[in-house]
Write a structure and sequence with these properties.
By secondary structure, the chain is of the alpha/beta class. It has a single domain, classed as Diaminopimelate Epimerase, Chain A, domain 1 (Roll). Helices cover about 40% and strands about 15% of the residues. Strand 1, helix 2 and strand 2 form a beta-alpha-beta unit. The termini are close together.
Protein backbone atom coordinates (compact mmCIF):
# COMPACT_ATOMS: atom_id res chain seq x y z
CA UNK A 1 0.00 0.00 0.00
CA UNK A 2 1.11 3.57 -0.56
CA UNK A 3 2.61 5.39 2.42
CA UNK A 4 0.80 8.56 1.33
CA UNK A 5 -2.28 8.23 -0.90
CA UNK A 6 -1.53 9.43 -4.44
CA UNK A 7 -5.04 10.86 -4.86
CA UNK A 8 -7.24 13.07 -2.73
CA UNK A 9 -10.53 11.63 -1.46
CA UNK A 10 -12.34 13.70 -4.10
CA UNK A 11 -10.09 12.44 -6.92
CA UNK A 12 -10.54 8.86 -5.77
CA UNK A 13 -14.34 9.36 -5.62
CA UNK A 14 -14.29 10.73 -9.19
CA UNK A 15 -12.36 7.68 -10.41
CA UNK A 16 -14.74 5.28 -8.65
CA UNK A 17 -17.76 7.13 -10.08
CA UNK A 18 -16.23 6.80 -13.57
CA UNK A 19 -15.88 3.04 -13.08
CA UNK A 20 -19.54 2.76 -12.00
CA UNK A 21 -20.67 4.89 -14.97
CA UNK A 22 -18.61 2.85 -17.44
CA UNK A 23 -20.00 -0.40 -16.10
CA UNK A 24 -23.54 0.94 -16.56
CA UNK A 25 -22.86 0.83 -20.32
CA UNK A 26 -21.28 -2.60 -20.56
CA UNK A 27 -21.19 -6.01 -18.96
CA UNK A 28 -17.40 -5.60 -19.05
CA UNK A 29 -15.54 -5.10 -15.78
CA UNK A 30 -13.07 -2.22 -15.40
CA UNK A 31 -10.33 -2.06 -12.76
CA UNK A 32 -7.64 0.52 -12.07
CA UNK A 33 -4.26 -0.34 -10.59
CA UNK A 34 -1.78 2.30 -9.47
CA UNK A 35 1.94 1.75 -8.96
CA UNK A 36 4.73 4.20 -8.18
CA UNK A 37 7.14 2.44 -10.56
CA UNK A 38 6.99 -0.44 -13.03
CA UNK A 39 9.18 -3.37 -12.09
CA UNK A 40 9.01 -4.52 -15.72
CA UNK A 41 7.61 -3.34 -19.03
CA UNK A 42 4.09 -1.89 -18.31
CA UNK A 43 2.17 -4.42 -20.40
CA UNK A 44 3.97 -7.37 -18.75
CA UNK A 45 3.35 -5.86 -15.32
CA UNK A 46 -0.33 -5.32 -16.18
CA UNK A 47 -0.68 -9.01 -17.12
CA UNK A 48 0.80 -10.02 -13.78
CA UNK A 49 -1.49 -7.64 -11.83
CA UNK A 50 -4.51 -8.75 -13.91
CA UNK A 51 -4.00 -12.33 -12.81
CA UNK A 52 -3.16 -11.39 -9.22
CA UNK A 53 -6.44 -9.45 -8.94
CA UNK A 54 -8.41 -12.48 -10.19
CA UNK A 55 -9.64 -10.65 -13.26
CA UNK A 56 -9.64 -13.83 -15.36
CA UNK A 57 -12.57 -15.15 -13.32
CA UNK A 58 -15.38 -13.23 -15.03
CA UNK A 59 -17.95 -15.37 -16.81
CA UNK A 60 -17.44 -13.72 -20.22
CA UNK A 61 -13.71 -13.08 -19.65
CA UNK A 62 -14.41 -9.38 -20.28
CA UNK A 63 -12.34 -7.64 -17.64
CA UNK A 64 -10.20 -4.59 -18.46
CA UNK A 65 -7.27 -3.35 -16.41
CA UNK A 66 -5.75 0.10 -16.67
CA UNK A 67 -2.38 0.12 -14.91
CA UNK A 68 -0.69 3.47 -14.25
CA UNK A 69 2.87 3.84 -12.90
CA UNK A 70 2.89 7.40 -11.58
CA UNK A 71 6.63 8.03 -11.09
CA UNK A 72 7.62 6.26 -14.31
CA UNK A 73 4.96 8.05 -16.39
CA UNK A 74 3.94 4.74 -17.95
CA UNK A 75 0.66 2.92 -18.32
CA UNK A 76 -0.97 -0.06 -19.99
CA UNK A 77 -4.48 -1.17 -20.85
CA UNK A 78 -5.22 -4.86 -21.17
CA UNK A 79 -8.37 -6.85 -21.79
CA UNK A 80 -9.11 -10.46 -20.95
CA UNK A 81 -9.39 -13.29 -23.47
CA UNK A 82 -13.11 -12.75 -24.14
CA UNK A 83 -12.44 -9.18 -25.22
CA UNK A 84 -9.38 -10.03 -27.26
CA UNK A 85 -11.34 -12.66 -29.21
CA UNK A 86 -13.92 -10.10 -30.35
CA UNK A 87 -12.17 -6.78 -30.84
CA UNK A 88 -9.91 -5.65 -33.70
CA UNK A 89 -6.17 -5.17 -33.38
CA UNK A 90 -5.37 -1.76 -31.92
CA UNK A 91 -8.71 -1.66 -30.09
CA UNK A 92 -7.28 0.30 -27.14
CA UNK A 93 -5.25 2.79 -29.23
CA UNK A 94 -7.94 5.51 -29.13
CA UNK A 95 -8.34 5.11 -25.37
CA UNK A 96 -4.57 5.35 -24.90
CA UNK A 97 -4.36 8.53 -27.00
CA UNK A 98 -7.13 10.19 -24.98
CA UNK A 99 -5.31 9.34 -21.76
CA UNK A 100 -1.93 10.50 -23.06
CA UNK A 101 -3.34 13.92 -23.98
CA UNK A 102 -4.35 14.47 -20.33
CA UNK A 103 -1.17 12.93 -18.91
CA UNK A 104 1.04 15.24 -21.00
CA UNK A 105 -0.69 18.20 -19.37
CA UNK A 106 -0.21 16.76 -15.88
CA UNK A 107 -3.89 15.86 -15.48
CA UNK A 108 -3.39 12.28 -14.32
CA UNK A 109 -6.80 11.83 -12.70
CA UNK A 110 -8.58 13.30 -15.73
CA UNK A 111 -6.62 10.94 -17.98
CA UNK A 112 -7.58 7.92 -15.89
CA UNK A 113 -11.24 8.99 -15.86
CA UNK A 114 -11.21 9.57 -19.63
CA UNK A 115 -9.65 6.13 -20.13
CA UNK A 116 -12.29 4.47 -17.96
CA UNK A 117 -15.11 6.28 -19.73
CA UNK A 118 -13.79 5.47 -23.19
CA UNK A 119 -13.20 1.83 -22.24
CA UNK A 120 -16.85 1.56 -21.19
CA UNK A 121 -18.03 3.12 -24.44
CA UNK A 122 -15.74 0.92 -26.55
CA UNK A 123 -16.81 -2.27 -24.77
CA UNK A 124 -20.50 -1.44 -25.07
CA UNK A 125 -20.56 -2.52 -28.72
CA UNK A 126 -19.15 -5.98 -27.93
CA UNK A 127 -20.40 -6.49 -24.38
CA UNK A 128 -23.60 -4.47 -23.92
CA UNK A 129 -25.00 -4.01 -20.44
CA UNK A 130 -27.52 -6.71 -19.51
CA UNK A 131 -30.43 -6.11 -17.11
CA UNK A 132 -29.36 -9.13 -15.06
CA UNK A 133 -25.69 -8.09 -15.08
CA UNK A 134 -23.78 -8.97 -11.93
CA UNK A 135 -20.81 -6.89 -10.85
CA UNK A 136 -18.18 -9.63 -10.84
CA UNK A 137 -15.14 -7.59 -9.77
CA UNK A 138 -14.59 -4.94 -7.11
CA UNK A 139 -15.07 -1.38 -8.29
CA UNK A 140 -12.12 -0.09 -6.32
CA UNK A 141 -8.64 1.14 -7.07
CA UNK A 142 -5.87 -1.31 -6.27
CA UNK A 143 -2.46 -0.03 -5.27
CA UNK A 144 0.97 -1.57 -5.54
CA UNK A 145 3.66 -1.23 -2.94
CA UNK A 146 5.01 2.27 -2.37
CA UNK A 147 8.64 1.26 -2.72
Amino acid sequence: MFEKPPFTKDEEARILAAIADAENNTSGEVRIHIERKCKKEPYAEAIEVFEKLGMTKTEQRNGVLILVALDDHKFAIIGDAGINEKVPKGFWDETKELMIAHFKEGRIVDGIIEGISDAGQQLKQYFPYQKDDINELKDDISYGKDK
